[in-house]
Amino acid sequence: MKKKTLQVITLGCSKNTVDTEHLLAAVADFYEIVPEGEEKPVDVLLVNTCGFIGDAKQQSIDTVLACAERKKAGLVGSLLVMGCLSQRYLATLPDLIPEVDGWFGARDLAPVVKALGGKAPARWTDRQSANNKLPYAYLKISEGCDRRCSYCAIPFIRGAHRSVPMEDLVAEARGLAARGVKELVLIAQDTTYYGLDLYHRRALAELLDRLSEVDGIEWIRIHYSYPADFPEDVLDRMADNPKVCRYMDIPLQHIADRVLDKMHRYVDGAWTRALIAKMRERVPGVVLRTTMIVGHPGEGKRAFEELLSFVEEARFERLGAFTYSEEEGTYGAENYRDRVPAKEKRERLNRLMEAQSKISYAFNASRVGTVTRVLADSYSDGVLVCRSEFESPEVDGEILVRGPEKLVGTFFDVKITGADEYDLVAELV
Asked: DSSP assignment, residue 338?
């Protein structure tokens, strides 16, 4: 019997990517999977949406509307929508877009699997990707968040924090390694909170130890670490375990005490500076990535200047920033006035990123002439697209090396020969 065809369009963050891969594995016996981006008729089209901030919500709505047009044209049999946007607006979206045959939230994949004619597994350890050639994969170690940052809608979209059992994560990592994955990028709403619900302790360091034992996994990278109550044993693993990348993604959001207080971050500027100093001291050569919010209520001109000075002082190797977006349902939207004009927000963002571009360039330029170990992600027109332990996939720059395609998915040494603020150029050693 010929299988039905299924196409999934995944929007938003890497956490949605993991959800999609778990879902595809659960229904693989029933469907022929049509890769995302192929404009061909399908029996079922599923959109995994994002609903975090304004731009992401608009992209999700536009995508669903475009898919509805495909259905009207007879190119789609059944249209389903899941994910954060669907979870957030489940009470209103069905009436607005009646072409959608089924709406599902973001907290539980089982109803989606059932709607597709499958049965949800007892343990979500299997993954199927439309691109099994990538040598890295995201590993979602927990879901939801117990934090209550005043600007963030995630807790009431994704629910309370729930850690994935360690044995399930190890089994998932083994499966990923079996398909050729060499690098795991650990993700969650807050990776440092891992284990508190299951084991009554912060267990990220122990998880790093367990994942390091998986044959085939050579790099483990940590993303989305919350600064308050940071588990310092993680720094020991980063310093001593060669499989744990000397790389930390730790969104700080701001440095001014008044802004941090209004954000409900439960740290102050002095504590933040001390944590950054401790990371650099205990993990020599660590690369730090952070994100900042400009224009948050309470950020006057003096607070922004303090943020700018801090960024220039801390010299984060990687930094992203975005302007404050008032999100309905959050504490900030209900209790603060969004006083900073949009033009002023953009100007502050531009000033911050101009300063950061100089810092990023200086860091990259300092690496010219050094030899570093890289992992090749892909190949195009004679050029290998690579990363070292200091570049995370999709968010950081790349190291471009001329070499044979057979090196994709392998580690090798290169000598850095050129740099700009984002990417590096290197040659094979």
From this structure: -
Alpha-carbon gap, residue 291 to 149, rounded angstroms: 14
pTM above 0.90, yes or no: yes
DSSP, res 191: G
Cα separation of 201 and 114, whole Å?
35
Q: In what order do the strands lie in the sheet with 4-10?
A: 31-34, 4-10, 42-49, 76-83, 102-103
CA distance 138 to 297: 33
Q: Are 299 and 254 in contact (CB under 8 A)?
A: yes
DSSP 365-408: HHTTT-EEEEEEEEEETTEEEEE-TT--TTTS--EEEE--GGGT
| Alpha-carbon distances, residue 78 vs 3, 11, 70, 197, 284 (angstroms) | 15, 19, 10, 38, 54
Contact 70, 76 (CB under 8 A): yes
Beta-strand runs (E) in 84-173: 102-103, 136-140, 142-143, 162-163
40: exposed, middle or buried (C-beta count within 10 Å: 0-12, 13-18, 19+)?
A: exposed
229: left (phi over 0), alpha (psi -120 to 50) or beta: left
Q: Which tens digits make up the pLDDT trace of 256-312?
A: 999 999 999 999 999 999 999 999 999 999 999 999 999 999 999 999 999 999 999
Strand partners, 384: 379, 401
- Residues 202 and 157 sit within 8 Å (Cβ to Cβ): no
Strand partners, 102: 80
